[in-house]
Backbone:
C-alpha cells in the first residue's frame, strides 16, 4: 500500500538535496514542489485554488496547468494524490527526470512550509492515514543567508530579521505538532546530511522501513557536496534561541563566521574530491 511522506520545516534548508537523495530509492518518490497537498486541500473543500500565503504560486500553477484535469471529486484526496504524483513521476519535471518505479511505497512532495501549516494538518491527518513526517532542520543563520541570495520573489524586500521570524514561525509549527504526538516524525539536520550522508540516509530509510544496501548509501554520498556554509552573526529573539538550543545550534561560531576560513576549508575539500573521487 502506498503511503504519504511529508517533508516539513523551512525552505533553503536543503530540501532539494533531500528530495534527490530520497529519490535514489526505488520505493520512494518525492516531487519538486508540486504543491499537491495545498491543491487537494482547496479542491476537496470546494474552495478556489489560490496561492498559498507563505509561498510563491510557481509550483501550484505548473501542476494545475498540466494536471488539473486529473483531479476528480469522485476520488478521495489520497487517490487524487497518487494519480497526480505518479503521473508527474513518469513524465518528469524541470528538476526531475522521468522515473519508472513499479514498487512505490512512499510518495511525497518537497514543500516544507505547507505540509506543517496548522491550518492544513487536520486535512492531512484525516485523509492521509499512516503518513510519516521528515523534519529537515538547518541552522537559521545560513538559512537566512541562502534566502537573501535566492533569485525569486519569496523573500524579495524582506530584512534578515523578517526572514528569521519566518524560520522561527515554521519551526514553532513543527514543535507544536511534535507535542501532540499524533504523527510519526523524524528529525534530520542538514548539517548531518552534508557531513554524514550515509548515516543520515540509513536513518531515513529505517524510519520509512524500506530496504537498502551499502551501494545505495554510497551513491547518496557521491551526490552530496561536503562544503561549509557561511554563518552570518544575527541577533536572535528568545524564541529563536530556544529552538536553536534544542538542536545544538550555537549563536556564535568564529570559524563559520569567517569567510576566509570557509573558503580555505572548501578549497581543501574540493581538492580531496578531485584526488580521491569522493566527498
Residues:
Amino acid at each position: 500500500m502506498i503511503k504519504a511522506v511529508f517533508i516539513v520545516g523551512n525552505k533553503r534548508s536543503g530540501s532539494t538535496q533531500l528530495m534527490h537523495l530520497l529519490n535514489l530509492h526505488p520505493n520512494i518518490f518525492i516531487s519538486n514542489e508540486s504543491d499537491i497537498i495545498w491543491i487537494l486541500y482547496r479542491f476537496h473543500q470546494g474552495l478556489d485554488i489560490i496561492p498559498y500565503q507563505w509561498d510563491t504560486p510557481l509550483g501550484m500553477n505548473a501542476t494545475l496547468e498540466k494536471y488539473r484535469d486529473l483531479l476528480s471529486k469522485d476520488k478521495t484526496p489520497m487517490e487524487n494524490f497518487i494519480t497526480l504524483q505518479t503521473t508527474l513521476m513518469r513524465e518528469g519535471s524541470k528538476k526531475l527526470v522521468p522515473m519508472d518505479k513499479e514498487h512505490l511505497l512512499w510518495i511525497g512532495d518537497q514543500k516544507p512550509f505547507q505540509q506543517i501549516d496548522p491550518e492544513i494538518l487536520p486535512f492531512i491527518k484525516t485523509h492521509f492515514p499512516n503518513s510519516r513526517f521528515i523534519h529537515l532542520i538547518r541552522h537559521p543563520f545560513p538559512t537566512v543567508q541562502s534566502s537573501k541570495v535566492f533569485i525569486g520573489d519569496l523573500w524579495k524586500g524582506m530584512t534578515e530579521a523578517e526572514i528569521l521570524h519566518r524560520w522561527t514561525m515554521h519551526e514553532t509549527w513543527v514543535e507544536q505538532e511534535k507535542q501532540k504526538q499524533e504523527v510519526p516524525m523524524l528529525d534530520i539536520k542538514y548539517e548531518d546530511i552534508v557531513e554524514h550522508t550515509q548515516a543520515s540516509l540509513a536513518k531515513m530509510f529505517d524510519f520509512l522501513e524500506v530496504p537498502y544496501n551499502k551501494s545505495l548509501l554510497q551513491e547518496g554520498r557521491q551526490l552530496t557536496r561536503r562544503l561549509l556554509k557561511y554563518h552570518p552573526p544575527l541577533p536572535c529573539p528568545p524564541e529563536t534561541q530556544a529552538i536553536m538550543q534544542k538542536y545544538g545550534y550555537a549563536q556564535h561560531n568564529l570559524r563559520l563566521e569567517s569567510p576566509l576560513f570557509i573558503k580555505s576549508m572548501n578549497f581543501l575539500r574540493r581538492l580531496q574530491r578531485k584526488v580521491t573521487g569522493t566527498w
